[in-house]
Amino acid sequence: MTTARRRPATELDRVLSPDTPHATALAELLLAMADDEFVIGFSDSEWTGIAPLLEEDVAMSSLAQDELGHAAALYALLAGLTGTTVDAIAYDREPAEYRHCRLLDHGRGDWAMTIARRYLYDSADVVRLEALVAGSWAPLAELVGKLIREERYHRMHAETWLERLARTRGEPRDRLLTALATLSTDAGTVFTPLAAEPALIEAGIMAAPFTTLETEWRASIEPTFAALGLPMPEPVSDPGRGRLDHGDAFRWLWGEFTMVRRADPGASW
Amino acid sequence: MSEAATQMGIARARAGRPPAVTAQNVRAALAEVTDPELPMLSVVDLGIIYRVSVAPDPGPIEIEILPTFVGCPALELIKTSISDRLSRFGRPITVSATFEIPWTSDRITPEGRAALLSAGIAPPSASATSDLIGLEPRVPCPYCGSRRTHLENLFGPAQCRTIRYCDDCRQPFEAIKPV
Asked: Are B142 and B76 within 8 A, CB to CB?
């Protein structure tokens, strides 16, 4: 974990309003991160009640609860910046307005798909969080410090299962290979460049551009993939559209998670 | 609290008057508010009380708490319980959450750790700085004290807990996640 000291928070740093310096740039970053956590959280919650093992039913439900909590905290920062509410951001958008990465557009699939997706996302998310934890905007840097402590458990869980599936010859390994092949060119979309990146880096909110972070991420997972004899994810095929053009699996999920809100517009979390 | 202050507090309580609004009395009141998911622990023993500010009369009492987990579903309930308990001071109450510093499992007090243990929940081992947290094998069984226990599940019935198993008394048990 990085120990770089962050700039002491000034009163201005803490203010959450559209007048916050770099509010537009922050909003783009927060929306991408929050939508990632929201979509993977909702997607994983689909295992509640039907996971392959009781232990995993508990684990996936708890993971989903963590991720939805992370999403809510990030949406709350965003809501402060844009003058709206958490529920409005989470539930009142059309599917095309969500900015999660294409990696998470893949539905939960079978267990191997869920594990492959989780491993790829968790390993990338931790690199992204490390680049933000020493950032200059205190509300985000502080939240990220807390998120890192929780995400460590997620990574251990995904890594344990990745190994288990990869080392079990036959169906488990075959299914894992199929899942990794399906996700291969979308794995790096977590690091899709944002228009706001130069502003975020200049303001000291983010330590490095996403292209640099993607290189770091690939270096971080390479030893595990090599040890397990798994093919590394390929480069993203269309990097400019990594958080756009959501597919049918997401539109279906959107229908599920907005169902209550649409049926009862006053409902809240 | 000094003997004189205690006597004064008792006298006020007998007279049906609200307790004196001091940070000390507010903290004492907070020690009576329990966590909804770990009811053997007060919010003070759980270590989530970060700041207690008492403004001069008739100003507000302001409490800042540290969420144990970002998505803790009990947070709103805890805020309400704190407000309810402090309302008898007769001042405006605000309770807010902050991530200014992260809550860590090291913040649970020695009294809190003892209360967890007697309720059959293993208190957290020293805080988490390596990737081996949670897989650390020496969490003693809260029932028989054996150190021959192993991790069953990194995740448990609440965000703050893991599930372990004692190889000696053959009981599954819950342990607070070191975080």
From this structure: no
Chain B residue numbers touching A75 (CB-CB < 8 A): none
CA neighbor of A98 nearest in space, from A189, A1, A32: A32
Query: Do B26 and B91 sit in the same domain of this protein?
Result: yes
Interface contact flag, B163 A55, Cβ < 8 Å: yes
Domain with B74 in it: 3-103
ipTM: 0.84
Overall number of domains in chain B: 2
Question: Domain containing B77 — which CATH number?
Answer: 3.30.300.130
Reply yes or no on whether the pLDDT at B79 is more than 90.
yes
pLDDT at res. B15: 66
Averaged over A14-24, what is the pLDDT? Answer: 73
**Co-location of B7 and B94 in the same domain:** yes
Per-residue pLDDT reduced to its tens digit, A221-251: 999 999 999 999 999 988 889 999 999 999 9
**C-alpha atoms less than 13 angstroms from C-alpha of B130 in its C-beta half-sphere:** 6
Do A149 and B104 count as a contact with CB atoms less than 8 A apart? yes
CB contact residues (below 8 A), chain A span 164-223, against chain B: none
Using one digit for the tens of pLDDT, what is the confidence trace for A77-91?
Answer: 999 999 899 999 999
Helices (H), A83-205: 86-91, 111-130, 138-166, 171-183, 197-202
What is the sign of the dihedral through the CA atoms of B107, B110, B111 and B112?
positive
Res. B39 pLDDT band, cuts 50 70 90: very high
Q: Which residues of B touch A138 (CB under 8 A)?
A: 100
pTM greater than 0.80: yes
Contacts of B101 in chain A (CB under 8 A): 142
Domain ranges within chain A, ordered by starting residue: 20-232+241-263
In a domain, B151, yes or no: yes
- The answer to whether residue B23 is domain-embedded is yes
For chain B, what percent of residues have pLDDT higher than 90? 69
Q: Taking a C-beta distance cutoff of 8 angstroms, is the pair A133, A148 a contact?
A: yes
CATH code that applies to domain A20-232+241-263? 1.20.1260.10
Distance CA A256, CA A260 (A): 8
Please answer yes or no on whether A150 and B73 come within 8 Å at the CB atom. no
Tokens found for residue A82: 């844009």
Q: Look at residue B111 and tell me if it is in a domain.
A: no
d(CA B143, CA B133): 22
Domain boundary residue among B43, B68, B103?
Answer: B103
Would B150 be classed as within a structural domain?
yes
